[in-house]
Design brief:
By secondary structure, the protein is mostly helical. It is built from eight helices and four strands.
Length: 255
Amino acid sequence: DIEFDISVVEIFIVFFLSPFMCIFSFTFNYLVIYVIKKKKNDLKEDFFKYMLLNAKFNCIYCLIYILSPINECIVFKLYQEFELICSSIRKNTFIQLYKLVFVEFFGSFIKMCGNFSYLFMNVHRYLLIGKTHLKLLEKIGKKIDNKKFLLITIIISLLLSLVYLFVYKIHDSTYFSQYNFPINMLEFNIYLNGSYFGLVSFFQFLYNFLNFFIFLLFNFIIELLTLAKLKFELNEKMEKIKKMTSNSETNSSNN
């Protein structure tokens, strides 16, 4: 049965693979933090500062999401009947608050902060290669220091992540769903005010568009620029080495 197979895969991902990946990612990022802090006297470039910041955001994000399965519920079809695999404590008000405040709101906030830090890490990695750079990236690297970066990142991430406090609602009823706790108000379309529904939908779209498309696009472009710059610098060095080699051979033949 295809539906059953899909449900089994979903159960494996949600309850086993996701926690494992959180533990693995936390361990890796913690090692990054440990190494950079231990070698901080040797790693003074801004690139490593943003790498450290990104690793810290990633660790916090993993700690938040490692417990997220306590709110999950998987519906699957077994012998023509629908069964549920759910956490027994998902209806608890405190557990719903955990999902609403920590997983959805604070998790979204940390995720966006992590994306900002990764973007700036890539910018400063590009600036480490060679002496001439694109003016726009050079301006960003010089004018936005760590304090300005944190201020801009926190304000933008906080404002856009606030929308998730209005997407979900804590409830103790099975009227809308027997397994959705807290309820996703956009999914069930239970806003009484149409303009309010549209506003929440718009800001959630704006958050997702920035967090999942714009950051990906910008990072991809900067990665391409970095590779192109690295290739150019390597070719220049190879040309210099060839010239030096040919000059030395000419001098030795003349002698």
